[in-house]
Amino acid sequence: MSTRKARLIDLEKREENSEPIQVLCLGMCRTGTSSLLAALKMLGYTPLHMSHIVEDTHLKRLWVEAIESTFIDKSSQKPYGRPEFDILLRGFDATLDIPCAIFADQLINAYPEAKVILTTRPVESWIKSMQGTIWQLMRWPSYRILRYVEPELVGSFLKLLEAIFHVHNGNKYGGAEAEEAFLAHNQRIRELVPAKNLLELSPPFDLTTLCDFLGKPTPSCGYPHVNSTDEYISRISERRNKSIIMAMMRLLKFLLQLLPVLIVSGGFWMMFK
């Protein structure tokens, strides 16, 4: 008989979510989710996006656990459901991007009253964008090395990304399998959500359409457009450089701790040589 593992989520304080989830944006990353994040914030929502998770090591570990418990290691860990998502999503009233997108079934079941938005784009351009951004960084030699020498910032990020794409497409970063996974993800959401509760957004994005769906007045400023490929690469390069500095500081701390031992050892060697 298998014994369930202790879960990190069970150590979190349980309290009622004061801001129940109102909007589930379940399109995959690189489908305009950052621009939609800006639009939702402009409309008064408090959304959770990967950009929030990536800077919080503990939160990344919780999401890795959610993925492993729900999709990978079901026999030894209890899958995440409404009680767990209420903790993970505490303080937010909307979700966007990965890792939330791969939990479409679970989140729709947990929050049946939430409106659902699916951001899409042509599959060929999605693959190209992914290969120029997220999938590119996952293959950078510097990132692969930093995964082991600096586990807090980059290491935990790569572990989360690999878990996400293991579930999404078996960690296939191009080709027919990646294309089929993207199309199947979008089709699954269309099947899960009644048409009246689903808004599908694709370029060119329209703010009036979004506001009408959410029952919000339309601002005059127009739909925001952010997070181009160049902007994304710039941010992840900055994160890599920050991680390198953290790794060097960890090494320096280790050497300083080792220095007295080396001095004493050297002294004994000089005395008895």
TrEMBL record:
Q: Which UniProt keywords apply?
A: Membrane, Transmembrane, Transmembrane helix
Source taxonomy = Eukaryota, Fungi, Dikarya, Ascomycota, Pezizomycotina
What name goes with this protein?
A: NAD dependent epimerase/dehydratase
Domain of life assignment: Eukaryota
Tell me which SUPFAM superfamilies the record gives: P-loop containing nucleoside triphosphate hydrolases (SSF52540)
Sequence intervals crossing the membrane: 251-272
- List the source organism: Pochonia chlamydosporia 170
